[in-house]
Amino acid sequence: MADPYLRLLGAQARSQTTYRTSFAIDLLGNLATLGADLLGVLILFRITPSLGGFSVAEVFVMVGLTALAFALADMTVGNVERMRLYVRTGLFDAVLIRPLRVLPQLVAVDFQLRRVGRTVYAAVVLVVALRFAHVDWTPARVALVAVALVAGAVLFGAVFVATATVAFWWVESGEVANALTYGGRDLTGYPMTIYSGWFRRVFAYGLGFAFIAYYPTLLLLDRPDPLGLPAATGWAIPAVAGVAVLLASALWRFGVRRYRSTGS
Amino acid sequence: MTVIEARGLRKDFTVRIKAGRLRRTRKRVSAVDGVDLVVERGEMLGYIGPNGAGKSTTLKMLTGVLMPSAGTVRVCGFTPVPQRTRLARRIGVVFGQRSQLWWDLPLRESFALLRHIYRVPPDDHAARLRECRSLLDLDGFLNTPVRQLSLGQRMRGELTAALLHGPEVLFLDEPTIGLDVVSKQAVRGFLAAQGQKGDTTLVLTTHDLADIERLARRLVVIDHGRVVHDGTLESLHARYGSRRKVVVDLLDPIAQPDPGLPGVTLAEESADGLRLTYALDGSGVTAGELVARLATTASLRDLAVVEPSIEEVVTRLYASGRPDVRGEG
User: What is the pTM of this model?
Assistant: First the structure.
């Protein structure tokens, strides 16, 4: 079943290696971007010894979890953001005339090899942060890191798909989509305690971003939640991601149906 | 065997029209407005009409890209949109302006990928590819990345790509658009050969009248979303009064250029009276009889019989009233 998609993936990878210089520059560019992000966090800690009640190493665990979950999502389904281009140029028609499912096809056809680089960098950041955070490792905590990463990636992936779907209604939706995806990533890396009021309710709990890095980190560090939720909330991310996937796939199907009834 | 059956096919689009500075009013436009179309296996169908007549929209509904607003469609026994992927294995689609090939990979690799995408048995795939290679002369650029191909080469690649899974119906949306004369000939010759085999049904939209003359045994003319003609090229000529012409060059002008024969009219007379053009509507005398009659009264220097041009008919068809709002495609 997966074979044609894997072939598409391979073809896309081969296509990209035809532009070696551009590929190398991209890898460096990604490294620089991530470096700048980390530097931003460090600069904050020069002003204040703790951020929302958390030390620099603890915040870096959140940053690392977020960065790696996001990079995994970005590497696999991040390219659905190219939907906009497909809808605008009519290339989406060419997707529909192949005997393959639409979403896996888009994901495989636009796979970006360069995003592998980001994933590797993010993994390095997470590993280093976990070493400095003095986690008292148990088998459950090791499992938690894996679960949080996979489920977090699924949640980010659902956000990618949901925001890309907006292109079916509104072709120039790029910036709005980026605000939710990249914006979501940037906000998720910080303790939820630094946000307040309606923003925290909507962003952290409504959209579920608090469950990706913040609550798993609390559980890893054996710290109580200053916001009052039980420790087991650290394990909530698979359920949250599941709901997000259901919502995103419903939206996606609705969008494809709408495209078919309105055309390009 | 019927391969395409469409009844009362309709597609409405909502367009927004500026009405004042910020206000927009919505207006519903029918791009396709009640098309009935039955195509039998092995037919070669030319689907023609002016820009915005609804050709591409019809094709998209037949291939499962767009959902009809009303009406029923069956293609190869499938309902296109709900059974899209199953239908996709049975049809081939070439959109003249949208590539199916992998831009950065050698042409050969696109063909190999398509074998996996359509799950074609290796032997069938190899046999079809061999045939296309020789008929379309692909060998010179099989290892060239698609982005470096000329338009003519790429189109030959697209045709091959659409045929490798042995489709029962081949849909071609303007397959010769933008090609040079030689490439057009190559594409037409190839499609004609495919059509001759009789097991592949060809449906093509085009603005190129030579495509129609060469490839379409049956013509469906659509305008304003409705079928205005469905029949052979000859019946189109008959219906829209296109006439065969006889052009006669004389050594000396004659006193009575109009011979007064049934079915013959004097269409043109040059200023010096030495060139006369007659139009024959086919109901009366033949071209031979006309020439024989003229020869008794005048000394002929030269003569030519001009076949009716489809261009004339189509121009006449397209010239009939256009509405103000019409979506492209």
Answer: 0.79
Parallel, antiparallel, or unpaired for β B169-173 and B201-205? parallel
pLDDT in tens, B163-201: 999 999 999 998 888 888 888 888 899 999 888 888 899
Q: Which residue of A has its CA nearest to B118?
A: A99
Q: What is the pLDDT of residues A100-110, one digit of tens each?
A: 998 888 888 87
Report the gap between the CA of B69 and the closest CA in chain A (Å): 7
Mutating which of A87, A260, A264 best tests the B interface, going by the most B Cβ atoms within 10 A?
A260
State ipTM: 0.76
What tokens were used for B166?
A: 């042995």
Q: Which of A37, A72, A83, A70 is nearest to A177 (CA)?
A: A83
Contact A11 B113 (CB under 8 A): yes
Listed in order, strand segments (DSSP E) in B174-263 are: 201-205, 218-223, 226-231, 244-250
B105/A4 Cβ within 8 A: no
Question: Given an 8 Å threshold on Cβ–Cβ distance, is B66 in contact with A98?
Answer: no
Check if the beta carbon of residue B199 is closer than 8 Å to that of residue B172: no
Tokens representing residue B165 in the block: 């899974």
How far is the alpha carbon of B274 from chain A, nearest alpha carbon, in Å?
56
What phi-psi label fits residue B31: left (phi over 0), alpha (psi between -120 and 50 degrees) or beta? Answer: alpha
For B94, nearest residue in chain A (alpha carbons): A94
Q: Closest-CA residue in chain A for B30?
A: A262
Cβ count within 10 A of residue A3: 10
Contact at CB, B60 and A93, closer than 8 angstroms: yes
Q: Name, in order, each residue with C-beta under 8 angstroms of B176's C-beta and a sequence gap of 6 or more.
A: B96, B155, B183, B184, B187, B188, B206, B208, B211
CB nearest A94 (choices: B95, B104, B118): B95
Token duo for residue A57: 């190493």
CB crowding B247-284: b at 16 or more within 10 Å, else e: ebebeeeeeebebeeebbeeeeeeeeeebbbbbbebee
Distances from the Cα of B265 to the Cα of A73, A253, B235, B269, B298, angstroms: 76, 63, 21, 11, 17
Q: How many CB pairs under 8 A join A and B?
A: 74
Nearest to A148 by CA among A220, A202, A200, A205: A220
